[in-house]
Write a structure and sequence with these properties.
Elements: E1 2-9, E2 15-22, E3 31-36, E4 41-48
Antiparallel strand pairs: 1-2, 1-4, 3-4
């Protein structure tokens, strides 16, 4: 029941990371602080389709 998701930088809109989550138990979108190689700093990354 796990599905692949992609994380997008909120500053430069670059899609940098992938991950997985259980859509049945977690309905809301995930937002994490990750390192963006394009911005060269830690920024918030939101889940995209």
């Amino acid at each position: 029941m796990r599905s692949q998701i992609t994380f997008e930088c909120t500053v430069c809109k670059e899609r940098n990371y992938t991950g997985s989550r259980n859509k049945k138990s977690k309905q809301e979108k995930i937002e994490l602080s990750k390192y963006c190689p394009k911005c060269k700093k830690h920024t918030k990354h939101k889940e995209t389709k």
